[in-house]
Design brief:
- The chain is α+β, with helices and mostly antiparallel strands and about 325 residues long.
- It has helices spanning about 5-15, 20-25, 35-40, 65-70, 90-95, 145-165, 235-255, 260-265, and strands spanning about 45-50, 55, 80-85, 105-115, 130-140, 170-175, 175-180, 185-195, 200-210, 275-280, 280-290, 295-300, 305-310, 315.
- The chain folds into three domains: about 5-55, Winged helix-like DNA-binding domain superfamily/Winged helix DNA-binding domain (Arc Repressor Mutant, subunit A); about 65-265, BirA Bifunctional Protein, domain 2, CATH 3.30.930; about 275-315, SH3 type barrels (Roll), CATH 2.30.30.
- Strand 6 (about 170-175) and strand 7 form a beta hairpin.
- The model has no long low-confidence stretch (mean pLDDT about 90).
Length: about 325
C-alpha cells in the first residue's frame, strides 16, 4: 500500500485529529509523511492541521477510490472505482469505458456534473459535494442481463443500501425512485448501448445526502438523507449501495427473480392504488396490481383490460 492511502485510511477511520508523530510512526520512514499529505491534497482532500493537535480530514470528505474499494467484498461491482471532481455525466464516462476489456463492474463517481440527467430528459440537480453521483457499468456477453430486471434491482439496491448505512426506512415509487416519508431522496437512470459485440448498461444513481434541490427547481418536492437521520457519510452510503447492487446482479444472472420481486413489492406503496402511467407515448389510468422484474408494472386499466408497462419506457404521473 502506498503512503498516501495508508495515511488516508487512518484519518478516515479516526475521524478526528491524529498527531504528526502517530501518523509518521505508521510509515516505514516517517520522513515521507509530508509527501503523503501533499499527495492527499493533490487528490482533493481537505486536511485540517493544527500545530498542537495534528491532522484530520476536513468535511465534506471527498469521494476517494481507495476508501470505496477497500474491504468492499463485492464479486464484481466496485472492484474498480474512479472518482472525478467534475464531469458532464457519470453515465457518459462509464459508457466510454465499455470497450475496454474487464470494464464490467466499473464505478464512476463525481462531486458534480455539468449535464446530470434523470428520466424523461429531466436534469439531476445537486450541489457539489452534497450528494452521491455515480454510475455502475455492466457489460454483457452472449447472456444478456435483462434490462427490466436491472431497472427494478437498481432502485431496490439504493433503498436497501441507504437503510443499511443510515438506518432510515425507504420506500420505492415505480420504477426506481427512492423515497423517505413520501419524498424523493434518490433516483436511477439506466442507459444501454452496444459496444461491438458487448451490450453496455450504465446504472446512474443520484442520492441527496446533505442537501436537496429547492422545490422551484424540481417537478416534485425532494428531501435528503440528513433531514431524516444522522448521515453516515457519502462513502459508507456508496459502499452499502454497491454491495446490494452487486448482490442483486448476481441474483439476476442466476435467474433468481422471485426474491427480487418480493423485496421490491415490500417497499412499494403503489399496489392496489389508482395511478396514471405514461408509457411509450401513451397515458394509462388504472389500478396497479403487480410488479414483475421482467415485464414491468401490471395495470388494471379503467377500460377493463390489463396491460404490462415496461419500467424502461414508463413514468408515474401521479
Amino acid at each position: 500500500m502506498d503512503d498516501a492511502n495508508l495515511i488516508l485510511g487512518q484519518l478516515y477511520d479516526r475521524r478526528d485529529f491524529m498527531s504528526i508523530h502517530e501518523l509518521g510512526a505508521s510509515l516505514d520512514d516517517p520522513r515521507r509523511l509530508e509527501a503523503a499529505l501533499d499527495e492527499l491534497n493533490r487528490r482533493g482532500h481537505r486536511l485540517d492541521r493544527q500545530p498542537d493537535r495534528g491532522v484530520r480530514l476536513g468535511d465534506p470528505i471527498r469521494l476517494d477510490a481507495y476508501l470505496v474499494e477497500r474491504g468492499l467484498g463485492a464479486k464484481l461491482i466496485g472492484r474498480s472505482v474512479v472518482c472525478f471532481d467534475r464531469v458532464d455525466s457519470t453515465n457518459d464516462v462509464a459508457m466510454g469505458s465499455a470497450s475496454h476489456p474487464g470494464s464490467g463492474g466499473l464505478v464512476v463517481t463525481a462531486e458534480s456534473q455539468r449535464m446530470g440527467r434523470g428520466r424523461r430528459g429531466r436534469r439531476w440537480i445537486s450541489k457539489s459535494g452534497s450528494g452521491l453521483l455515480f454510475s455502475v457499468l455492466l457489460t454483457d456477453g452472449p447472456d444478456l442481463l435483462d434490462h427490466e430486471a436491472v431497472t427494478i434491482a437498481a432502485g431496490l439496491a439504493v433503498a436497501e443500501g441507504m437503510e443499511s448505512a443510515a438506518s432510515v426506512r425507504c420506500d420505492l415509487k415505480w420504477p426506481n425512485d427512492v423515497r423517505i416519508d413520501g419524498l424523493k431522496v434518490a433516483g436511477v437512470l439506466i442507459e444501454s448501448k452496444w459496444a461491438g459485440d458487448v451490450r453496455a448498461t450504465a446504472v446512474g444513481v443520484g442520492v441527496n445526502v446533505s442537501d436537496n434541490p429547492p422545490s422551484d427547481q424540481v417537478a416534485r418536492e425532494a428531501t435528503c438523507v440528513s433531514a431524516h437521520c444522522r448521515s453516515p457519510g457519502r462513502i459508507e452510503l456508496l459502499r452499502e449501495i454497491l454491495r446490494r447492487l452487486d448482490y442483486w446482479r448476481g441474483e439476476i444472472v442466476a435467474d433468481r427473480l422471485d426474491d427480487l420481486r418480493e423485496a421490491w413489492i415490500a417497499r412499494c406503496s403503489m399496489l392496489n392504488q389508482r395511478v396514471r402511467i405514461f408509457s411509450a407515448g401513451v397515458e394509462h389510468i388504472g389500478r396497479a396490481v403487480d410488479i414483475s422484474p421482467l415485464e414491468g408494472l401490471v395495470l388494471a386499466c379503467d377500460s377493463g383490460i390489463h396491460v404490462r408497462l415496461p419500467a424502461a419506457v414508463s413514468t408515474v404521473l401521479d
